[in-house]
Amino acid sequence: MAKLNLKLSGILLIAITAFILLGNYGYSQRPRVSPMAGVSQTLGEATEVIVTYSRPAVKGRTIWGDLVPFDKVWRTGANEATTISFTDDVLIEGKELKAGKYALFTIPAQKAWTLIFNKQSDQWGAFKYNPGQDALQITVKPETSADREWMQFHFEKLNGTSANAVLQWDKLQVPFKIETQKKDGEVRASLKAEVSQTIGAATKISVVYSRPGVRGREIWGGLVPYDKIWRTGANENTTITFSEDVMVEGKKLAAGTYGLHTIPSAEEWTIIFNNNSTAWGSFDYNKEEDALRVTVKPQSTDTQTEWLTFFIDGMETDSNNVPNKAKVRLVWNKLEVPILVALL
Predict the structure, then answer these.
(1) 332 assigned to some structural domain
(2) Which of 155, 187, 219 is the last residue of a domain?
């Protein structure tokens, strides 16, 4: 009887363990109201800065001083604590920070924000925040900005070995300067970057590209000629990846990584998803390898964007408030080109 009870206990333990594991797996695959996103920027020769975060939406709420209280530690997003990582030692607003991965906590306030780089990067929210694990704290000033429904991070003011990381949400933005301490090697004029966004339960969209600057040049119809194939960036051809099958501008596209070529014109752009994702530029572009072509309308912007930037935003939600559509937006100079991506 004792052996039987022991055997039954073992079976019960296995069943409970399996239930927990399956439950955790189901939770990780559950569609999120505040979806996962990421953005990365290369500085110098090869210093990579990566921000991973969950994106809450305004949804008509009062954000600053209400949903996000002033003078309290905030996870800087939703769900897990936002993280930021550096492949090399960096300077944050002139202060040294070692290479590594950190939880990026913040203490918002009306006149100044405290940014906290905490060594315990694997946390849910800020509930177990331990100031004894802080690697660095700095103070920066918030700024007013254009209205932003979904919280986002992006990089601007690229200067070869430095850039400003910018947290933007509602009508507020918080920039902070990051500079690599690794100054050896060749620095590209057009630095490499990536942006990613999850919609639905786990459909991930990511764009990898190099970022040319305007530098006082005429871009559209000049540096980038009309009615010719363009690599949609600089250096290597820009690539776009979908982890699952999607609809792009109403047309089905299989999961995979594609070379993202474009044919710009004043009135309409042709967006090309090409099966050759490893080309250098568009020099070896082969139309026979196209997986899909769609056409979209470019839109003028009120402000000039110096460095070519891809955003993935403009998300639409289903009846459960889970994002099921997003716009991949190319923004440069005073123009943006939106591409609608939706779940099947």
Answers:
(1) yes
(2) 187
- C-alpha pair distances (Å), 173 with each of 1, 60, 87: 68, 18, 25
What is the per-residue pLDDT for 29? 60
Q: How far apart are CA 116 and CA 106, in angstroms?
A: 6
CA-to-CA dists, residue 56 to 38, 113, 196, angstroms = 14, 19, 15
* Other C-beta atoms lying within 10 Å of the C-beta of residue 108: 22
- Note down the domain range covering 307: 193-344
Q: Is residue 22 part of a domain?
A: no
Whether the CB-CB separation of 215 and 234 falls below 8 Å is answered with no
Assigned token pair, 292: 């899909």
Give tens-digit pLDDT for 142-157.
Answer: 999 999 999 999 999 9
How far is the CA of 97 from the CAs of 11, 26, 93, 118, 315, in angstroms?
49, 37, 10, 11, 34
Tokens representing 117 are 């780089």
How many CA atoms lie within 13 Å of 229's alpha carbon, on the beta-carbon side?
Answer: 19
Q: What does the block give as tokens for 212?
A: 């040319």
